[in-house]
Amino acid sequence: MTDTKLRDAIYGTAIGDALGVPYEFMERDTFVCTGMAGHGTHNQPKGTWSDDTSMALATAKSLKDNHGAVDLADIRHNFELWLYKEEFNCNGRTFDVGNTTANAIIDRKGCTDVMSNGNGSLMRIIPLAFTECTDDEIREVSAITHGHRISTEACVIYVHLARRMLAEPWDRKEDRKAYFERLLNEEKYEAPFERLSRLPELSRDEIRSTGYVVDTLEAAVWCLVTTESFEECLLKAVNLGKDTDTVGAVAGGLAGIFYDFSEFPKEYIRTLRNKTLIGSCLF
Ligand SMILES: [Mg+2]
Q1: pTM for this entry
Q2: What's the 125 CA to ligand 1 centre distance in angstroms?
């Protein structure tokens, strides 16, 4: 039986990704995303999701095939099927592949230098929140492509946040702000993640939405904790500009867990492409 919250997290990821695809690389406040749109940066039809969702699905499918166990060789194999054989993608064509990800898959070795700290492992790590894997296993799954400490720790932090929201969902009686403050103060964040615990106080101007993994993690969590609906969170993420699809996807994974599926805009679910593939990778 599929874990319905895994479905929600993956749908959140795919919807955030698809909302952001038309605007990727665009500067903040040079566009306004108000819903699903087609074309733009990658000239894709409305509802098209990209590498972020594909690699999360490739990871989820491996976990499904291995009954929830992490098999690094199998996950890497699925990434190869995605990069070389056009599997796990929305419309039969792989697009929007990050440099570090491509190099690591081609070389069969994750990148470990400090310059290889893009958000390419963070964007695909959410399925691990639905397993009992250890922190070291989270780091190893990140390191298939992104092995530097900053990337591996970003993935651990993200999975921990997701697991905590799953274990202790917001009961809607508690003040939303108090819930998030608790969520962000249960762990002591070391540099360069020290801003996480005070994110709710930061202004939009203080949030960067580049492809750097720390910026993406901060931006995604900031969007969750400063909004009041699934839709508002995802649109706020995309409208930060720059790495719109990945910030949208990473925010969407968390928003998918925090909110109930019934609160996702029906139009977004309807427009999302290739839901059959998404469903086949859930466990
Ligand atoms: Mg992408």
Answers
A1: 0.97
A2: 14
